[in-house]
Amino acid sequence: MFDKIWSYFAHDIGIDLGTVNTLVLVKGKGIVIREPTVVALHRKTRQVLAIGSEAKRMLGRTPAAIEAVRPLRDGVISDFDTTEAMLRYFIHKVHQSPQSSGWRSLPKIPRPRVVVGIPSGVTEVERRAVQDACLVAGARQAFLIEEPMAAAIGAKLPVEEPEGVMVVDIGGGTTEIAVISLGGMVINRSLRVAGDELDEDIINYMRTRYGMLIGERSAEEAKIEIGSAYELGGKDNEATVIRGRDLSTGLPKSLKITASEIREALTPTVTQIVGVIKEVLEETPPELLTDIVERGIYLAGGGALLRGLDKKIAEETKLPVYIADDPLTTVVRGCGEVLDNLDLLAKVKVTGGLR
């Protein structure tokens, strides 16, 4: 009875706790928070100064006393206390409790149920860290589901049917590849190579080819603006100006870089991702493979927006490839779907706990 009363007052939420961005969905309201997974801290006191977009603007620009950090690496928690403070802030923000104030105060409302998407390849210790962070941050219950399953549910694919469904979720820290049938993952791979590595490819390319040092933010902007995984015809001549530091002189430097050069820089990571997709297909049972041939491969996550990636995968695998509607939000929408369907949650959850 008390659980029903708490559910009435609390806003149950789904969280896509990503390496680059965190999305929060409130049951019955939709996605209410889209913030970068960045926290600004005072170096000595470790006091939280800013979270999300405000903290991201500080990356690479902080004075000696302030540190802007990304508390998740490769899809898992690298800084527990900072992640807990960030989750506490998001839960507080969702409930907008006037009684609570400060970064470390709990909202004076019943604790919500929380469903969090996690990479499929994390260890039991890493799973427990995510669950504990949610509970300490103010959740009443914290359920974990694997990101490829959440992405498939968010893309409205028939995950409970006896049919093969293949999902490739390319996030910031991990690439999740899974073949799903009857509410479970038959085969899955979690590759800790994704959007961050694509940015790093551009940084390394500029350093080795032009002797120029650029930051992560500049590399990400170039990737989004003109990045591609497949020849784009006339669009290969599109260009953008990248600014950085000349390694030989130490002075500022600007260069105009074309889309074909960015594609050349991204090729090693794209080739690695495509290679693992092909490995998963090779291991897929014949009956499920027949379903995938008919249904195709579905791409989700921010990496799915890299121009020409669907064509590149289709060319290499000889299968139809589709990009899910609004691929950036498929995981958090899947978390929201299972909040409404407790039977489905019971099938797909990896672990769940009551504080």
CATH architecture call of the largest domain: 2-Layer Sandwich
Q: Which percent range fits the helix content?
A: 25-40%
Q: Based on DSSP secondary structure assignment, what is the total number of beta strands?
A: 19
- The structure class reads alpha+beta
Strand order of the largest sheet: 3-2-1-9-10-19
What does this structure look like?
There is one protein chain. The protein has 3 domains: 2-150 and 330-354, Nucleotidyltransferase, domain 5, CATH 3.30.420; 163-193 and 268-328, Nucleotidyltransferase, domain 5; 195-266, Alpha-Beta Complex (Actin, Chain A, domain 4). It is built from 12 helices and 19 strands. The chain has helices spanning 2-9, 53-56, 80-95, 124-137, 147-154, 195-210, 216-226, 259-283, 286-295, 309-317, 330-340, 342-348, and strands at 13-17, 21-26, 30-36, 39-42, 48-51, 66-69, 72-73, 76-77, 113-118, 141-146, 165-170, 175-181, 184-191, 212-213, 239-246, 252-258, 297-300, 321-323, 349-354. β2 and β3 (30-36) form a beta hairpin. α3 crosses α4 and α6 (195-210) packs across α7 (216-226). The longest helix is centred in the C-terminal third of the chain and has 25 residues, at 259-283.
